[in-house]
Amino acid sequence: MSLQLDACTATISVTPDDENPKSLHNIELEVTHPELGHIGRLSGIKILRQFCGTRFLEVLDEHSQELQTFGSDIFDKNGRIRPWLVEEGRRKGTGCWGRELDTGILIYILNMSVDEKYRNKGIGSWMVKKLVESPHVQKDDTLVCWPSPTDVEDKAAWTALQDKQISFFRKNGFRRIGRTNFFGYSPDPSHPSRQLAADADVDAQGKGFDMEDLSVDELMARYPLHFEVVNILGPDVSNIIQAAYTQDPASIHRPDASGFTPIYMALSRGNIPAVRKLLQLGVNDDLANSDNKEGLTPLEALESSMRSGREFSETLLGQWGGYSDDELRCEFLTKRAMGLPLVSNDEAEYVKKRKWGCTCGVCAGGWLSKRMRFRLEGEAGISKDNMEMEMDYFTRGEAIDDPIMLSYSSHIPPHLHRSIYKTFYKGYQSIFEAISAFLRTSDAPLSVASIASTAFGPGIDFYLGRGGKYEYALDAVTHAAEEQSELGDGTFEEMYEDETEVGTEYTGLPKCANDLEFGMVRRMVGLDPQLRWGPYYGEEDDDDDINMDDDEDDDDDNMIGVLSAGAVPEFLQELLRRMPQGLMSPGPAF
Boundaries of each N-acetyltransferase domain copy (predicted)? Predict the structure, then answer.
């Protein structure tokens, strides 16, 4: 019998992911026919970035290599689109995608399959249409796919099948994001990608370059200089480059089959002796060349390598140790040769200032930017004032009945809640005041030690004597500042980006890549990322339930934080939990 699409039924199920149930939801769309039974299936992942925070890349990496590649190619660790995909330049592609990719839910199509005897009958397009029309996809969301055949070993057959897959998705309104391998679809019919004809879309960046699969011996024979600058990192490489140049001056400019020049390879490798020598011999014209498989200039290749190393450390190792000196020396020499702005004209000073990612040149310690300092100072001051208004909640000589009444008790571990007397809370408040004063009056980096040496005021001795820590206030301030930043609800930006309301007090400060690096700031001030920090609401107020390492003594120092045990409900969730049953229902997830 002939297949009638109108007779088919699309059943969609959405289930939380096992590893990250809040951030990732599995989507399964199954197509059935009343007489033919199952005929097709689409599977995907719904990515809810609002629950990823700064762990966006980490969450995707925990799911699969495919999602990790997608995430790192398109987005940063905060789930924001990479700047080169929206700024002018070759990597922008058609430019039909922009900052709208920073918002909305991402629906990543992992796999589509149609039973062989029912293929080429429009079922694939029908599945995409049904998914888009479902309540699981909203106007501001984006569908994403990576056309990439599986289980095909022959290169020609693989390429032909990929071209067919790309044609299918373009026919259904998907357009390439920049010059990456990924395609996006916007449910919004007015979106620029929906106005772009399929034949006006661009190819991926590597298209047209010979992807050679050469042995080590073949590489050495065909591209000896490229091989040397990648594999010889010591001073001997300078003599090798000089010898090659003496024999053939064009050798230092000659690209390989992928379009990579020797200076490109040297910078990608962070080979400082090779970079110095090549620049000395005159490869400045090659520094602007992006005609290669990656579409990158040599400097962009270096920056890409530095960024990848940082993201790997932050995502998989949980801690980044800063850029290497050799990477930064390479960056300094290249930028100077290109006449680009530098945070310092002295090489050693440049390396020191850029170690932790500073781009403004005035970060305290190389990591605490002026804008971050302003945020933290303001948050600490507001917190101190709010705490003053809460002092009336206390009864003299008694601990607070319900700590949830206090705005900042959520960053005091539950085992200390029985110690929250008014004097204890006064001491806690005094530390917030000390943080605000230090940030306002000093240009030095913030740290536990700096606050411990400057804090004074009523209740501090009582607070510390009962187990309180300076770290708890630093935890509260940095957490609240991040929650109010554009990485959270954006209330800080709403207030301070409007110069007519508050003047240029904030907007007049220099911008820096470190302006939103809350994770690094927390680590630098002394909050160990391996320990559990607040907010603690939702955990039992029972010392026995605190998840401590069995090998650690139960002393004050080890109680600064507890080892991470997963997500903790937020303040409002705790309030809802305390409401009488039946008063309020959370409703379905979708």
Answer: 43-199
